[in-house]
Structures are given as C-alpha cells and as structure tokens.
Amino acid sequence: MPRSKRAKVVHLSKTKKKGKELTLRLYASIQENIPKYSYIYVFRVNNMRNTYLKHVRNELADSRQLTLTKPSSPHRLFFGKTKVMAIALGLNEGTEPYPNTSLLSPHLHGNVGLLFSPRPVPDILAYFTTFQPSDYARSGTVAPRSFVIPPGMVYSRGGEVSEEEDVPLAHSIEPTLRKLGVPTRLIKGKVALESEFEVCREGEVLGSGQTSLLKIFGVAMAEFRVQIVACYNRENESVEAFARHPDEDADIDEEMEDGANIELDEFVGFEG
C-alpha cells in the first residue's frame, strides 16, 4: 500500500551542517589576528562552564577589567579544535605564518584555547587570578573535600552553616533523598537522620547521585578557573611557558613533529 503524503513528517529543527565552514573560519581568523596583537596566550579551562567562558569573552571584548582606557584592538578568544588551531599557528618552522608561532603548537593539548591580547602577561594573569567563580560539581569530578550530613534534623545546607543561620529542609524533598540513598525519615513533618551520612570523601571521584545531593544542599565543589599555559610575544618572537597539563608527557612534541605534514583539509568537517 502506498505511503500517504498526508503523513509526511517535516523536521522543523533540521539544519545544514557547518563543519567545513566553521573550521576554515577558525583557521582564517587565527592567522588574520596574529599581526594585530602583541601577545598570544594559550589558556586551559578547569571545570568548563559555557556561562563563565561567555562572561570572560564579554569582559575581554572591551577590556574594562584590564584597563581604564579601551585599547585600539579588543581581545579575541578562540576555543575550537586544537589541531586546527595548531595548524593555523604552524606545526614547524616551515609552516608557521610568523616567526616562532609554531612554538605555541605543542601547548595546544587538552581543553585549551587561544587568547589574542594587547596586554602583557602580568595584566592577564592578574585578571584570571581574580575571576574564579564556584559552581556545582559534575559527575566525574574529584571531590576537593569531604561532606557529611550530621544526624538529627536535616537542614537545607546540611550542616555547612550554623542552625541559627539555616532553615529545616523542606519535607517535600525527603523522598528524593531516600531515592539517592540517604536513610532519612519524617518525624512530625521534619526530615531527620538517625546517624550521620557521608555524601563524599576528599579525593573521591563523584558519581551522579553524589553530585545531586551536593546540589540539593547547595555545596559548590567545582571552581571555574582559567590557567595561562604559554604566551607568544610578537615583539621579540619568543614563547614563554608557564604550566603543563598533568597528563602531558614528552610524547606530545613527537606527535607535533609527526603531524608536520598534516593538511587543513584533513580536519574539514569538524566544528571548530
């Protein structure tokens, strides 16, 4: 039996992929901005949050946090495919668009991005040192400290603040706590615990249930932090390294040498 045309499904959310376009745009934008800025920074993001990264991008757009006078060139931030960014900077002396920009490529490893700035290292380091907002941890995060819910009446902050500054936990949340493994019970409409309950231990990898409990009690254990890894100074054509990722090893330099003949077309199709 022929399929009815009236039953045809039209996907309104269907969009055209822009992988090739975005990759080429990222490559071209990086090379275009190299001669416009005095410094190129490789930065690493710990506990990535799009909201905070957008805040950094907006603040650096007009440099209000770095100087009282607006510079001639606003900062530019790129956070895309690391191999595409490395190719744009050059993988070796023969492929670099400007002298020694390829020295930044070995640092493009992991959750990193590029920051083009007219400001010297001390100003950039000072800005990122002061901007380290806290947020709720996600599954897979290592707990920086322990959290234990004390026995007795359960309060909304789980003992993080004094009882005088806290309020009892709403009874409507008690079923959720039991589903997450907390042995609570209702006593005259109040949520109570017979003995203390350890939600997490310092150094432990958090699971989804633990992160849900931490969020219920308002315990933020993740800190969004931007760390400067390396800086390229266009004036003296040098690169200064500040930090390396704990998981990095000596093989990364060999990987960049092995990829010296990689063409940009190999990465077309990946979003930058």
- How many domain modules? 2
The CATH homologous superfamily name of the largest domain equals: Ribosomal protein L10, N-terminal RNA-binding domain
- Give the low-confidence spans: 63-72, 245-263, 265-272
Category from helices, strands and their pairing: alpha+beta
| Strand-residue proportion | 15-25%
Q: Please, what is the average pLDDT?
A: 81
* CATH topology-level name of the largest domain: Alpha-Beta Plaits
List keywords for this structure.
19% strand; 2 domains; 7 helices; 272 residues; Molybdopterin biosynthesis moea protein, domain 2; five-stranded antiparallel β-sheet; alpha+beta; Alpha-Beta Plaits
Quick structural overview:
The protein has 272 residues and is an alpha+beta fold.
Mind explaining what this structure looks like?
The structure is a single chain. It is built from 7 helices and 12 strands. The protein is of the alpha+beta class. The chain has 2 domains: 159 residues, 2-Layer Sandwich (Alpha-Beta Plaits), CATH 3.30.70; 76 residues, Ribosomal protein L10, N-terminal fragment, domain II (Molybdopterin biosynthesis moea protein, domain 2, Alpha-Beta Complex), CATH 3.90.105. The strands form 4 sheets. The chain has a 5-stranded antiparallel β-sheet, sandwiched between helices. The C terminus is likely disordered.
